[in-house]
Amino acid sequence: MKILIYGTNYFPELTGVGKYTGEMAEWLASRGHRVRVITAPPYYPDWQVAKGYAAGRYGKERISNVSVWRCPLWIPGKPTGLKRLLHLATFTISSFPVVMLQVAWSPDLIMAIEPPFSCVPQAWLAAKLCNAKTWLHIQDFEIDAAFELGLLTQGGIKRSITAIERWWLRRFDRVSTISPRMIDRLDNKGVTKSRQVLFPNWVDTSQIHPLGRKNAYRKKLGIPDHGIVALYSGNMGQKQGLEIVIEAARRLQGDKNLWFVLCGQGASYQYLRDMAKGLSNVHWMPLQPVERLNELLNLADIHLLPQRADAADLVMPSKLTGMLASGRPVLATAHEKTQIARVLKGSGVIVRPGDIEKFALALKGLANDPAARDEMGKVARRYAVEHLERSVVLSRFEGELLNCIEQEG
User: Fold this and answer.
1) For a designed S-S bond to 116, which of 88, 182, 204, 350 qualifies (C-beta 3.0 to 4.6 A apart)?
2) What φ, ψ does residue 87 adopt, rounded to 5°?
3) Same domain, residue pair 12 and 134
4) Dihedral pair phi/psi, residue 383, rounded to 5°
5) 377 and 393, same structural domain?
6) Within-domain flag for 207
7) For the chain, what is the radius of gyration of the CA atoms?
8) Are residues 177 and 307 in the same domain?
9) What CATH number is attached to the domain comprising 276?
10) Mind listing the pLDDT tens digit for each residue in 63-118?
11) Which residues contact 262 (CB under 8 A, 6 or more apart)?
């Protein structure tokens, strides 16, 4: 197959959409498919261009047998609702001629990755010009989340934008997303069952696996081997609701055996640092190299997965796969009937979003119950191996791609 993938985020970004798009493209290339990617220079989650790349220039490189075109975009220093829209608009405009140039390559399938939704029309147009199949893969329901999180205003504009979204979703041969509850949203948006594909995020359980308690990160941070570490690792943005972690650290600072480690970057990073001033039980780390990810995840005795209530089921945190594979329990904020709650049944503790008191009590309870942590960790690892193993997920996805291309009409 000749496959063109189109979206703003790609390797070497280590978190979120870029991580999974990069792994997917490289896996397909390793299977003998010819893969091209149109994307932006890496910038996420730091919101600044990675070393060796430039925001204002076109570029082309080859990574693991994948041809990658980089297109310019504007990167705001402090992303807000309007600035995010302008940010995406610059990539949509700059990437348009590159997408059109790929028509001559005659791909069998063109896949748009959401976010951003702004790339959807030109992906569809390019496919129609070269008679390629169309596929939209939704990592986040970007438009719904923008309204729910207040990044866009409600009212008449919401009705107009959601109507446009529904119209475009019905134009694609396949629309995939990453959880059953997100599939339910496709029903509500008018996507027929025959065009829906469940394509969850995955984890390489041979690379991410449980280790013992001795850990180089503990030594680096000055945390004793017997200390209990509550770890958050990933993007620090608005939808994560990380304020609850800082408030829990404040309430539990009297517990000298419990340490909080926050690893990552993002739009809310400095705000959270300011909020945590004076807390000696909170450590901060930048994103770590991918080759040390297993060691980082095994630093945790308890993984933290906060989510804002208004983001529930609009996004499925990509970081959850690695948490489960590391064989550690997860403390998450979610409502009972969300997909996160279903996945974490037996492998974690669920607290209602925004309930700081119960979050702190649940964390203290897990910290003081090693037997419960051990049992939950075993359940988490088993779930990752049985449901999220990379080779299983991607092999199934490859089959769906072939079915899509071979289908008439």
Assistant:
1) 88
2) -55, -50
3) yes
4) -65, -45
5) no
6) no
7) 21
8) no
9) 3.40.50.2000
10) 999 999 999 999 998 877 778 889 999 999 999 999 999 999 999 999 999 999 99
11) 231, 232, 233, 236, 242, 245, 272, 282, 283, 284, 285
